[in-house]
Amino acid sequence: MTNDLTEATKKKRIRNPLKTRQHIIDAAIDEFTERGLDGARIDAIAEASQTNKSLIYRYFNSKEELYTASLKDTYEKLRASQRDFDLNDPDPMSSMRRLIESTFDTFAENPRIVRMITHENVLNARFLKEAMDIRSLYVPLLEKMREIVKIGEEIGVFRSNVDLKHLYISISALGYFYFSNMNTLSIVLDKDLSARKAVRVQREQAVEMVLAYLRR
């Protein structure tokens, strides 16, 4: 019994630092998306995460290091939402449709992802350039896309010579641009682009635009 309690205590000690670190990152993402890197305050992150500055600096050496960790967390969530395991349909058209839909839905459901990516673009991808492990997140996706496109070519439903990286840019852009520019475009076009119907129409249009390009 004592040994069981000891093991449980050890596991709890191992888990708690991970949870605390994640709480800090979650609070940091809120702060960075609201104020940007320069405007973000460690005091505010400490208060939101119910920690303190000294504890935050125990996990992260600087605000920049915390920002990089938050950026990595953002991209990990984006990639996880694209659900590579759902892309094994024998019909390549269906697999590609799922990828387009899941990417669009991720931007629709996670405004923090949109804002973090926008802030990093304002910084000219300064921190993303140093985060080589973020790039590795996309290797499995590109390989899966390669498989899907190859099958589509072989059975005669997809065009040949598809540039996979540009294909992914198009898939991502059709969702990211819509949600990152939703507020300004709603005013310019005099249309509420946050309305469910508008989002649904844009989602289907994104799917059809990419599939129309791929069709032979």
From TrEMBL:
Residues 18-78 form the HTH tetR-type domain. The keyword Nucleotide-binding does not apply. Residues 41-60 bind DNA. InterPro entries: Homeodomain-like_sf, HTH-type_TetR-like_transc_reg, HTH_TetR, NicS_C, Tet_transcr_reg_TetR-rel_C_sf. It comes from the Bacteria. One of its GO terms (molecular function) is DNA binding. Keywords: DNA-binding. This is TetR/AcrR family transcriptional regulator. It comes from Rhizobium vallis.
